[in-house]
Amino acid sequence: MESQSFSEKSYWLSTRDYAPGQPLSADIDVDVAIVGGGFTGLCTAYHLKKKEPGLRIAILESEVIGFGASGRNGGFNMTLFGLTLGITALRFGKRKAREAHLYMEKAVDLLRDLVAELDLDCDYEHPGFLRVATSEKYRARILEEIELAHKLGLGGIEWLDKAQLEREVRSPMYLGAWWEPRCGILNPAKLAWSWKAVITRMGVAVYERSPVAEISRQGGKVVLTTTRGRVRADKVVMATNAWSHFFPQLRTKQVPVWTHIVLTEPIPEKVFADIGWQNRQGIEDARNLVHYYRLTADNRLLMGGRDVSVTASGDDMDQDLSPPTFAGLKEDVRQLFPALKDIRFTHEWGGPVSVPLDMAPALGYLGDKNVVYSLGCVGHGVSLTHLNGKTLSDMVLGRQTDLTEVFFVNRRTIPWPPKFLRNMAIKAIMGYMHWEDRRFDAPVADPSISPPERTAR
Ligand SMILES: Cc1cc2nc3c(=O)[nH]c(=O)nc-3n(C[C@H](O)[C@H](O)[C@H](O)COP(=O)(O)OP(=O)(O)OC[C@H]3O[C@@H](n4cnc5c(N)ncnc54)[C@H](O)[C@@H]3O)c2cc1C
């Protein structure tokens, strides 16, 4: 991992001056040590301190707070759990899909409320969410998802037809949309750094540029080893997300997958007359490899998704830049909003998300109850990590609450197989997703689209 250029890792990480804190440079004893300074680690520390102000807590971060997905994401505070409601229902059953959605509703509300209560500086807006249909097949897919949500007794989601959607956002590609008021957009790096300020004031010690190389046991303690100091802790929280596989204890639970983003210059005011978007909703489409897009506080268009990158070795974490995906995303912006055909793009970046084999989050214990972990938020972890922090704090404190009882706490994850088989599995899954997206993208039946075996890359 790089040390110097964290501000180049995303546009967000360059939107404020940030001076990283000191590394760990001595041996220390704490009650709880947290590995990873993203939203999961920061929020776990916050909820622990709120419940038990006397706890001695340290966070150890390899690079700087917000260096991982938390400082690079699209900034959607949204209810989506895993990939889709339908896939969650298929994998875990309808009752659990409903439980997951209700957990996510709670997560979105919690983040929105914490931003207000603690005055977290992160350009927060709460404009709602549109999942737009860009072909007839996607229209059918979205309508099916809405029907499933309603069958599960979930509220706050409705269908906007083409004319209704046109009053909100205008694109020649839109046929209608899923509309859900419960969604916010924010600047994630500012949010991570605001969290650091809050928990530091509460007495949490934050060590940056302090990669943990090893977890071991000594007597009843858990020991974390870094280059210049060791931490002896009663309890440890592993909040390392897409880097988790570097720890043997978590190796098979997830793989890193990279998603990429491009950003425009601020959109001139007159263009909004063409595209509308006066209510500034966060938008996704309904592809397997979704597009996600939104406006920033200064009216730049952030467009992410379309494709993902993976690494054959599993260990090379330098996959942030994907020129073909960046080029494709820029073309997608021009196709969606022809009024932006001459817009300039100023930033491109990417970051890793944590993907379990069944694409759903997992929280649990490693061996005894002294080490807990959270991973697998896929591309939907901004809200989730904020509530997971509260859940992890209950797990660390040994409290049984409604949060620790949800089905993805302490669930059995399906292990990713060894490298060769894992790469074959990824190739097959990606091949299928691409093939189906091409089929669904096509406005009419397109005989040139071949079946998955032949398109698998
Ligand atoms: C490009 C992109 C777009 C996304 N868009 C959205 C979105 O719009 N909405 C949404 O809900 N989700 C989105 N996500 C997902 C979301 O960002 C993540 O799920 C969430 O931020 C995960 O937070 P985390 O704290 O678990 O992990 P991270 O933020 O990745 O933090 C893990 C931290 O652990 C540190 N670390 C790793 N190894 C070690 C070690 N050995 N020692 C010490 N520290 C270590 C890393 O440096 C990192 O800072 C997106 C992700 C990406 C990459």
Using only C-alpha atoms, the radius of gyration works out to 21 Å
Biggest sheet record: 8 strands, mixed
**CATH fold label of the largest domain:** FAD/NAD(P)-binding domain
Got a strand count?
A: 18
The proportion of residues in beta strands is 15-25%
**End-to-end CA span:** 28 Å
Number of domains: 3
In the CATH hierarchy, what is the architecture of the largest domain at level 2? 3-Layer(bba) Sandwich
Poorly predicted runs: 444-457
The average pLDDT score comes to: 95
Going by CATH, what is the homologous superfamily of the largest domain?
FAD/NAD(P)-binding domain
Question: Which class best fits the helix and strand makeup?
Answer: alpha/beta
Briefly summarize what is shown.
By secondary structure, the chain is α/β, with parallel strands linked by helices. The chain is 31% helix and 23% strand. Flavin-adenine dinucleotide (FAD) binds at residues 35-41, 60-63, 67-70, 72-76, 78, 211-212, 239-243, 259, 261, 292, 304, 350-353, 377, 379-383, 385.
What does the model show?
The radius of gyration is 21 Å and the shape is globular. The longest helix is centred in the first third of the chain and has 25 residues, at 94-118. The two termini are 28 Å apart. The model is unreliable at 444-457 (pLDDT under 50). The chain folds into 3 domains: 19-123 and 185-254 and 356-415, FAD/NAD(P)-binding domain (3-Layer(bba) Sandwich), CATH 3.50.50; 129-181 and 255-355, 2-Layer Sandwich (D-Amino Acid Oxidase, Chain A, domain 2); 419-455. It contains 11 helices and 18 strands. Helices cover 31% and strands 23% of the residues. The strands form 3 sheets. Strands 1, 2, 8, 9, 10, 11, 17 and 18 form an 8-stranded mixed sheet that branches. The protein has an 8-stranded mixed sheet with strand order 5-6-4-13-14-15-12-16. It is an alpha/beta fold and 457 residues long. The protein has helices at 39-51, 85-92, 94-118, 136-151, 162-166, 188-201, 272-275, 323-336, 382-396, 419-441, 452-455, and strands at residues 28-35, 57-60, 76-77, 129-133, 158-161, 176-180, 184-185, 205-207, 214-218, 221-225, 230-238, 255-266, 282-285, 291-295, 300-309, 345-355, 362-365, 371-375. Bound molecules: flavin-adenine dinucleotide (FAD). Flavin-adenine dinucleotide is lined by residues 35-41, 60-63, 67-70, 72-76, 78, 211-212, 239-243, 259, 261, 292, 304, 350-353, 377, 379-383, 385.
